[in-house]
Design brief:
By secondary structure, the chain is of the alpha+beta class. It has two domains: 2-136, no CATH class; 170-315, Alpha-Beta Plaits. It has helices at residues 2-38, 46-97, 104-160, 170-183, 197-204, 206-224, 248-263, 291-307; strands at residues 187-194, 229-232, 237-243, 266-268, 271-273, 277-284, 313-315. The strands form two sheets. A five-stranded mixed beta sheet has the order 2-3-1-6-7, sandwiched between helices. A two-stranded antiparallel sheet has the order 4-5. β4 (266-268) and β5 (271-273) form a beta hairpin. α1 (2-38) crosses α2, α2 (46-97) packs across α3 (104-160) and α4 packs across α8 (291-307). It starts with a helix and ends in a 7-residue tail after the last strand.
């Protein structure tokens, strides 16, 4: 806003300067013409004085061009009006009234000057319109780019994130495992499932079960933070990737922390809830070389934990962690 106001002020001053230049030069030219007509100019000075008329005429043109360049339409209208006034004065006062044929070049110069102003103004208007079109197209491209980015983000959200919990989903989890495999470094996977969760849905309703999953997912995500990759891999299943080399003792320590996390009671309208989890653990590279094999190993271990009595961890094999 301030920049636009400053620009407008500068344009106004350019027009005022152009008007002042034109008036000053017009007055000087009129004085020279009076001197010529009165015969007070020495014969040896006539050529110099006549040449001064040409110089002053060019200065007038320069002043009006300044007005047009800096103040565009207003400068063009005022400048052209001044030039027409000067032209009319030459034609009427000099050529018609005083029959001064020597003023003919000045009249021709005035007409040519007006044509030049029109050409300059039209050229500037075309450039302005072209600039506005380019600017509009650029802004449209930026807006379209933002829309594409927003759509890409929305599609990524739909493809890789669970809508209910906002956790990464199974697709994301599988792709992340592939990324770790590509890096070639060891890692462990823990697949966990809520014990007897179906009874909560059957006894208290699906809405209650969904609210519990949201609460546990939020706790799980906060626990994992940036250290571990976490995901909701199924209805009541969660998964995490532990990058690096882990011992069985390390895994058991993490599982004890997860147990405390999930067994902390959740207060809801239907009552207080506390759940247990079954855990299936496997490791790369010992238990598989593809995301499908890794997940098969983790789910097999999880299944074994379930049939062994639930609420416990189970390793896919004794050599899962190397």
């Amino acid at each position: 806003m301030a920049a636009d106001k400053k620009k407008q002020t500068g344009a106004l001053w350019a027009t005022i300067l152009g008007i002042l230049i034109y008036i000053a030069v017009y007055a000087a030219t009129a004085a020279i013409n009076r001197s010529l007509q009165s015969g007070t100019v020495a014969p040896d000075k006539l050529a110099v004085v006549n040449s001064m008329n040409g110089v002053f005429s060019q200065i007038q043109v320069l002043g009006i061009v300044i007005m047009i360049v800096f103040d565009r339409k207003r400068g063009f209208v005022i400048g052209t009006a001044l030039q027409v006034f000067g032209l009319v004065n030459v034609v009427i006062m000099q050529m018609i009234v005083r029959h001064n044929t020597a003023a003919l070049p000045g009249a021709v110069t005035g007409v040519v000057s007006i044509i030049i102003y029109i050409i300059i103004f039209n050229s500037m208007e075309r450039n302005r319109k072209l600039h506005d079109e380019v600017t509009a197209n650029y802004e449209q491209l930026i807006e379209q780019n933002h829309m594409i980015e927003a759509k890409d983000k929305a599609l990524t959200q739909l493809a890789y994130y669970d809508r209910m919990t906002n956790l990464p989903n199974g697709e994301f989890f599988s792709d992340k495992i592939q990324e770790f495999i590509d890096n070639g470094a060891p890692f462990a996977v823990i697949q966990m499932n809520m014990d007897n969760f179906k009874q909560i849905n059957d006894n208290f309703g699906r809405e209650c079960g969904d609210d519990l999953i949201k609460t546990y997912a939020d706790r799980f995500q906060k626990y994992c933070g940036d250290k571990y990759t976490c995901a909701r891999t199924g209805g009541d299943e969660l998964g995490m990737i532990l990058p690096g080399k882990y011992t069985e003792a390390d895994i058991m320590n993490i599982i004890e922390q997860l147990r405390a996390l999930f067994q902390e009671p959740v207060q809801m309208q239907q009552g207080s809830f506390s759940i247990t989890m079954s855990y299936g653990i496997c490791g790369y590279p010992n238990d598989g070389g593809t995301p499908e094999n890794i997940m098969l190993a983790a789910n097999t271990a999880l299944y074994n934990a379930k049939i062994a009595g639930k609420n416990r961890p189970c390793f896919y094999s004794q050599n899962s962690l190397g």
